[in-house]
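Worked problem 6 (solution included).
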Amino acid sequence: MTRLRCPRCERPLATCLCATLPAPPLAHRTELLILQHPAEAGHAKNTTALLTLGLQRARLLRGEVFDASLAGPGTALLYPGECATTATAVPSEINQLILLDGSWRQSRRLLAANPWLAALPRVSLPEQPGRYAIRRAHRPGQLSTLEAGLHALALLEGDPERFAPLWAAFDALVHAGLSRRREAGFA
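Solution. The predicted structure is:
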């Protein structure tokens, strides 16, 4: 039997997070374009819906191969690597940030399937602990898509306090997930 899903946040109705989202969505200067691996869509632990619904200039595309025309002037890829510039030192002309959403294996596949992504300027975040206690990070500094997007926007644009309502929605997602674990005896 299929569970009914919220048409807005795509979560099961029993765990819909729409009431926790900021209304209206938060304003910001830098567009976030999230390229999501199809296998990540519909995961209960996925944070991308919160990000796209809680921010005015965030959009989601699902697939494995994407058109290079998505990257105009001023586009950078938020992805770690040797050639990445830390977000604290990124030039101000960045007006679009591309995030890859999926497991680390899936994100590497997206990068390999879209060589134009590797040609973009690459931005990374300073290593910091994640708040996403319902999903295990394999290495220090690995963040959910929402955490990475909000940290990057705060570093690029300043004024991190304006993102507090979306952090609250994220914390509600984490709290609800941990509560369900405890109820199921998986604490």
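Discussion: The chain has one domain: 27-63+70-125+140-181.
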